């Protein structure tokens, strides 16, 4: 039974990470474990920024965006000396396991660290990109979608008022999950994502056909990994008579108070991650499948694909007519 473990947040922060930290700490304490917090992700792990945590340290954080433990991207951790230094700090405190809250890169780093250093790890998927396979959603995705949707709804007001086309670029790194979900919810006329080929000439033909039917304004949602909003806007301006504008939502999608869904998901996953770690599990990440809690091997799980739901893609096309 693991009785002393640490928790850290790593990679791109996501709304709901604090709810997960809270669940990890409170579950561990309720099971009689000693819980430690690592500051600044893998940078802090290799620097020994590891301190005990108690229940009051996670009081009133469930509604906070970001991460009270801070996060980092740490290229050094991709090399063995940094991981060995990290393991030295972990062992010097008698810590037997690590819970890592982060995206696919962080979970990969946890698996590499565990296999190399023999320290148990359990991952919790947290990334607005939602690009982690074998879990319905990763923590932060639904909140990021709500943030993008709020922007889409606001922009539609001014697009309507001025008969304009607006191109809104959302995050997602190499994936289009945010673009599809927010675009569908926002009634976007076009959704451009890396997972589905598109032809800007055909997009503009549809735009002109809509104009002939009296459609005076449109909203396009584009995923950052597919194309830059500025490029789409320039193409529309050149190829059609529409006035076009664009905006890049950027890092605002990473912030904000987590929605109810993300708070409950984070609480469930944080609780289950501790149960798995204390029962001797390692090299796994928790998640939900059809809303039921599951656990998957990190290496195997991250090696699988996470496709965009074809039904959502079909709906997006039909609804924009
Ligand atoms: P995210 O977890 O949001 O996907 P990153 O891809 O930046 O964010 O990964 C977070 C950190 O995880 C990296 O900065 C690095 O420290 C660590 N990491 C990622 N991949 C590896 C790897 N193959 N080996 C060791 N550490 C890794
Ligand atoms: O992985 C989350 C994410 O927000 C991606 O959607 C985005 O491309 C990336 O992080 C931005 O990275 P950074 O915060 O390091 O600029």
Features:
7-stranded mixed sheet, binds 6-O-phosphono-beta-D-fructofuranose, 321 residues, binds adenosine-5'-diphosphate, Rossmann fold, 11 helices, 11 strands
Explained architecture:
The protein is α/β, with parallel strands linked by helices and 321 residues long. It has two domains: 182 residues, Rossmann fold, CATH 3.40.50; 114 residues, 3-Layer(aba) Sandwich (Rossmann fold), CATH 3.40.50.460. 43% of the residues lie in helices and 19% in strands. It has eleven helices and eleven strands. The strands form two sheets. The protein has a seven-stranded mixed beta sheet, with helices on both faces. Strands 7-8-6-9 form a four-stranded parallel beta sheet, with helices on both faces. Helix 5 packs across helix 6 and helix 6 crosses helix 11. It is elongated, with a radius of gyration of 22 Å. The mean pLDDT is 97. The structure holds adenosine-5'-diphosphate and 6-O-phosphono-beta-D-fructofuranose. Adenosine-5'-diphosphate (ADP) binds next to helix 4.
CATH architecture of the largest domain: 3-Layer(aba) Sandwich
Bound molecules: adenosine-5'-diphosphate, 6-O-phosphono-beta-D-fructofuranose
Which parts are unreliable, with pLDDT below 50 for 5 consecutive residues or more?
Answer: none
Give the mean pLDDT: 97
Backbone shape: elongated
What is the CA-atom radius of gyration, in angstroms? 22 Å
Q: Looking at CATH, which topology of the largest domain would you report?
A: Rossmann fold
Structural class assignment: alpha/beta
Give the DSSP E fraction (strand runs of 2 or more residues).
Answer: 15-25%
Strand order of the largest sheet: 3-2-1-4-5-10-11
Largest sheet: 7 strands, mixed
Total of DSSP H or I helical runs spanning 4+ residues? 11
Number of domains: 2
SSE order: EHEHEHEHEHEHEHEHEHEEHH
Query: Ends: how far apart?
Result: 58 Å
Indicate the CATH class of the largest domain: Alpha Beta
Number of strands: 11
What percent of residues adopt helix (DSSP H or I)?
A: 40-55%
